[in-house]
């Protein structure tokens, strides 16, 4: 499993209905994208759920690098680049993935929590703890899924989770889910990824 996210931070007075309309118009285009596990079309609005910014920040869980690369280099990614500029695309390697008890419910919110991997920790034990946290998040009421991913260049661990209700039981940045494309969700490998 591979994870990817890019974010467009927008002006404080930006009409976020533009983003809602865009996703309503084009969100379905990845509903059958090869190699894609999940794409959550995410939105944060200034002063809502503690957000300091207006932001559009889709988050992806990929089953294959080929599907991800086809998205990035095959033309689909050029649309948002043309409209908003070329963002920094962050990528992480999968550590753990679990389906939640509300897996069949519509996704309403997402939570992303980033944390550094501290110097001096035993890496295997730290990552095993992140697997336990992924399982704990997925077991919470209203959880659709939970994933842990790591960037070994920046030594950053990210916990990502989707929720069926507006009170997610996870800490971190809260996003509204505008659309969920999940053509290969069932193929995402569950549990620990090593």
What's the alpha carbon Rg, rounded to whole Å? Answer: 16 Å
Shape: globular
CATH architecture: 2-Layer Sandwich
Fraction of residues in H or I helices: 10-25%
Mean pLDDT, to the nearest integer, reads 97
* Class from secondary-structure proportions: alpha+beta
**First-to-last CA distance:** 11 Å
Briefly summarize what is shown.
The protein has four helices and eleven strands. It has 194 residues and is an alpha+beta fold.
If you had to describe this structure to a student in words, what would you say it looks like?
The protein contains 4 helices and 11 strands. It is of the alpha+beta class and 194 residues long. It has a single domain (2-192), classed as Alpha-Beta Plaits (2-Layer Sandwich), CATH 3.30.70. β8 and β9 form a beta hairpin. The longest helix is centred in the last third of the chain and has 16 residues, at 123-138.
